[in-house]
Amino acid sequence: MTFSDTLDELGEGDFLDLVESRARAQREADVDVLRLAFHWAVRHPADRLDPVESARPGREKARAFGGDGTPLVAEFAAASFGARVGISPSAARGLMADALDLAHRMPLLWARVEALEVKASYARFVARQTRQLTRTQAGYVDGRVHEVADGRIAWTRFEEVVKGAVVAADIDAARAREEAASRATFAKRTKGDAHGMATFMVRADVATVAQLDHAVTTVAGRLDETAGETVDERRVTALLHLLTGHQGLDPATGEPQTLPSQRLLPKATLYVHTYLGPDAPGIARIEGHGAVTEAWLTRVLGPRAAIKVQPVLDLAGQAPVDAYEIPERHRRAVRLMTPADCFPYASHLDGPDGPFETDIDHTRPWDPGSDERGQSALGNYGPLTRLHHRVKTHGGWDVRQPFPGIYLWREPDGQIYLVDHTGTRVVHRPGLPRVEVDFVLTA
Question: Nearest CA to 396 among 59, 130, 47?
Fold first, then answer.
């Protein structure tokens, strides 16, 4: 009998009892993971590291994961913990930091978490919001919020209670954050869009944003429906008028003008990857944006874009070089083949046009004194953030690249992960017969 068949036999009361028990089990598991994160941090204290070795470049350091009053932690501990949980090392570090803060700085909240009266997610939010506070100030927030953290008020109200308590805990710091925020202005395109759409965001003080909103609203209100069927579409058209130096109104009549000629608009470049052949899926990919259909290219870019066809970069034809330094053409090829950090569960992604923020690591170390040295060639490169590069070099992790872009990682305790363009998967767990072939294959 399947689980679904069993559910069909339950009355509504029993069904809801089962829902409640599963929700409680999930809460218990979340609290257990938080406890384990705390104890894992405790098992990796600063004095575990050799001071002489730790002082050398690139070696593991003791870091302050949590806030004031929490112990230092050996930084590479987050890599193994995160891999077992299925999250990136940076996310694991955050989980350990939250656990340390709750246990050392917010005893009232931590007690309610362990009693299953407060969800781990609520408590972790408080820990993150108070990390910049002193231990005494964090204790003040703890006293203010621990009673209402059990879900008795809506999440949005709880957020406001916590943020208000943080401000009250340190008024001077709150003023300083406001002053710093006033300088953190920007106008930029954001990531994470899809279906041929993108987002341009402006962050400024409230008065400036109010002026922008008023200007867009005014111009959009004077445009007819030919500029867009909906109010939002007309607001976008109005913004385009304003940004290109045109107010959108005829100075003589006060009537809306047509859009300025496309030749007056500033030029922007999109890198579009298309696929030809009988098995082509009918999609294209825009770097920094994602997949769109070929119909979108025809409809949106066709009427207004100048298209320049570039030859496909021959990844297989990238000749190796007998030098440690990595040529720019190799770096570009690595970015196209493996645009994301290749450490297990890592989330960092280099932008299509910006500088390389990841290191390009030699999977097999380059050694000019050995006939078995790893070449500077595709199939022996892997993009890694600086922390993950250091973990790989000095943290006891091992990696092989049996085929270009396919990475097999072994953590110090023996678990093996496969990382490729689809993400991270566990392919071997300690205690099972070792899959020796994984680490015999070479590029």
Answer: 59
Contact 400, 441 (CB under 8 A): yes
Residues 6+ apart with CB under 8 A from 401: 363, 364, 379, 380, 382, 407, 408, 443
Please give the model's pTM, rounded to 2 decimal places: 0.69
Q: How far apart are CA 75 and CA 79, in angstroms?
A: 8
> Is the same domain home to 159 and 192?
no
Kind of pairing between the strands at 381-384 and 290-293: unpaired
246 with 100, same domain: the answer is no
CA angle 104, 105, 110 (to 5 degrees): 75
Residue ending a domain, among 133, 157, 180, is 180
Token pair in block for residue 199: 């987002």
Model confidence over 123-158: pLDDT tens digits?
999 999 999 999 999 999 999 999 999 988 888 889
299, 314 contact by CB (below 8 A): no
Residue ranges making up the domain that contains 252: 187-264
Is 176 found in the same domain as 28? yes
Per DSSP, helices labelled H in 184-258 are 206-221, 231-243
Residue 424's nearest CA partner among 337, 346, 336, 335 is: 346
Residue 205 forms part of a structural domain: yes
